[in-house]
Design brief:
mainly alpha
């Protein structure tokens, strides 16, 4: 069996794509029932669904790119799987929260923001740690005399 390169990124991107489709279908369902072709028609439910979808599109690419960059740099790890799963759950919670589920919106965006901070901070720190944290050569190289 062939080994999969960057499985966390692959699964996260697949899940993110399915969530994007789900959010679009949810907005489309309300748009259709409200008979609104363009814009929001002042329909509160449609506005909420459109904002849930737009908010997702605003944040999802950054999380997915950070997961990909970190997995490419550091390899697959349990903590990256946890971050990816939390991200997908957070975005579903946010969407349900926009429909009125108590706490869903706040929990979803809080987890998203914390992940952006943690993944982004780690991505910035990695090159600095590698550059400044590298041990100095233990052996001095002396040119040969002859």
């Amino acid at each position: 069996m062939q080994s999969i390169t960057m499985p966390v990124t692959l699964v996260t991107t697949g899940g993110a794509g399915i969530i994007a489709l789900w959010l679009g279908l949810r907005a489309g369902r309300v748009r259709s029932s409200a008979k609104v072709d363009i814009g929001d028609g002042g329909n509160a439910a449609l506005i909420a669904r459109m904002r849930a979808q737009a908010n997702y599109v605003e944040y999802a690419p950054f999380i997915v790119m950070l997961i990909a960059a970190l997995e490419f740099t550091c390899g697959t790890s349990t903590w990256l799987w946890v971050a990816a799963i939390l991200f997908l759950i957070a975005r579903v919670l946010h969407a349900f929260g926009m429909d009125g589920m108590k706490g869903g919106r706040m929990i979803g965006i809080l987890i998203t923001f914390l992940l952006l901070l943690a993944l982004g901070g780690y991505a910035i720190a990695l090159p600095l740690i590698a550059h400044y944290g590298a041990p100095k050569a233990a052996v001095e190289v002396v040119p040969a005399t002859g």
